């Protein structure tokens, strides 16, 4: 069976003659996995990247001093840096 | 094996002499085998390894366990093999005081700085709301510590004032991840009560034996949906409490990434793809 990296045993190919513990090769198991760093990093990049790009597109290379978003009217206000 | 051995060096930076250790919940020694209730695996034990793990079934200090290993004539190499195996399957539960935790953190940080990353083991917890919250909190530990510094640094570089969104986004991320994992657990526990949460570094997983196709499919779907829903709800609450409407934007991004875990190359999507392949195979041979 293909052991997942999260639970990969270190004694996979060993036998009882050469090891203290022999992994159960017949065990079938499933995992439901989530990688916190991937979720966090992508969320940060998505949020900061899109706002930074919008700020540069609207205000030029100096960017915005502040950004406010009106979710009710679907409007974003960029206060450009001088 | 000498009992005068330094536990820190012996364990590859995993344990210190003052730590209390025991076999993780859900693991037990039975008829010369290490039985894993979460996966139904039965790992065969050498007689001496069996004695070592029976001794570990009760909570003891590292020094006491080393003395026991010595009395069973287990060599340093063999004992390290047992420890590494347990570390790999999340089989060892370590308890240490806050001061010791701080000390270990500094030691690990200095090892990382020297380019010698310490041994990273899996940590197993029961799949309760407390166990999941604790695992998610620890998986996010680096983010809790680094994000404030990163926010300050980015505010000097980025041409935008989006930085105050970063800190309030952390509770949104935390709540979303807890909801994601707990949603999996609520369904899985009805079919197999002994499931567990496994954490290695910043990766989290719910470990369980293969179940009926529909149970697996529904379980795979509810996690991302619950994570996305709770991320949006929490971001609305945090946004209102912190007067930072941008948190809503971060909440939507996090929700989107929960849903992205349904894509076939990562996380739940990959589990679903494996499930469909398995089903397709069963259909084609039947």
Explained architecture:
- The complex is a heterodimer of chains A (82) and B (286).
- Chain A is an alpha+beta fold and 82 residues long.
- Chain A is built from 1 helix and 4 strands; from the N terminus they run ββαββ.
- In chain A, a hairpin with a 4-residue loop joins β3 (64-70) and β4.
- The longest helix of chain A has 24 residues, at 36-59.
- The termini of chain A are far apart.
- The relative contact order of chain A is 0.11.
- With 286 residues, chain B is an alpha+beta fold.
- Chain B has 2 domains: 7-113, no CATH class; 123-285, no CATH class.
- Chain B has helices at residues 7-10, 47-56, 62-71, 76-88, 98-113, 129-139, 141-157, 166-191, 213-242, 246-260, 267-285; strands at residues 20-23, 27-30, 33-36, 41-45, 60-61, 92-95, 123-126, 196-200, 203-208.
- Chain B is globular and about 65 Å long.
- The termini of chain B are far apart.
- The interface between A and B is large, with 52 and 78 residues.
- β1 of chain A pairs antiparallel with β4 of chain B.
């Amino acid at each position: 069976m293909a052991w997942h990296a999260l639970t990969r045993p270190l004694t996979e190919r060993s036998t009882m003659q050469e090891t203290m513990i022999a992994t159960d090769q017949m065990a079938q198991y499933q995992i439901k996995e989530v990688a916190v760093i991937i979720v966090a990093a992508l969320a940060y990049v998505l949020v900061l990247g899109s706002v930074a790009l919008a700020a540069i597109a609207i205000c030029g290379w100096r960017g915005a001093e502040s950004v406010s978003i009106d979710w009710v009217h679907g409007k974003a206000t960029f206060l450009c840096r001088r | 094996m000498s009992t005068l051995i330094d536990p820190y060096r012996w364990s590859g930076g995993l344990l210190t002499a003052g730590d209390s250790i025991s076999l993780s919940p859900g693991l037990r020694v039975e008829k010369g085998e290490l039985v894993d209730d979460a996966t139904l695996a039965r790992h065969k034990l050498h007689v001496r390894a069996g004695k070592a793990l029976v001794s570990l079934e009760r909570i003891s200090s590292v020094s006491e366990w080393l003395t026991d290993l010595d009395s069973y004539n287990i060599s340093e190499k063999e004992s390290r093999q047992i420890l590494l195996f347990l570390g790999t399957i999340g089989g060892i539960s370590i308890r240490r005081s806050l001061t010791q935790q701080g000390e270990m953190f500094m030691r690990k940080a200095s090892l990382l700085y020297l380019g010698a990353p310490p041994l990273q083991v899996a940590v197993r917890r029961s799949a309760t709301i407390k166990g999941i919250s604790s695992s998610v909190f620890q998986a996010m530990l680096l983010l809790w510590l680094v994000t404030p510094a990163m926010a300050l640094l980015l505010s000097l570089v980025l041409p935008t004032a989006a930085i105050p969104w970063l800190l309030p986004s952390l509770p949104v991320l935390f709540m979303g991840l807890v909801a994601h994992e707990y949603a999996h657990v609520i369904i899985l526990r009805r079919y197999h009560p002994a499931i567990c949460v496994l954490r290695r570094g910043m990766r989290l997983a719910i470990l369980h034996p293969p179940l009926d196709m529909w149970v697996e499919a529904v379980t795979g779907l509810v996690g991302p949906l619950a994570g996305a829903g709770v991320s949006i709800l929490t971001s609305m609450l945090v946004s209102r409490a912190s007067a930072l409407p941008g948190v809503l934007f971060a909440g939507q991004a996090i929700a989107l990434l929960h849903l992205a875990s349904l894509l076939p190359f990562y996380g739940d999507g990959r589990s679903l793809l494996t499930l469909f392949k398995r089903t397709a195979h069963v259909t084609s041979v039947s």
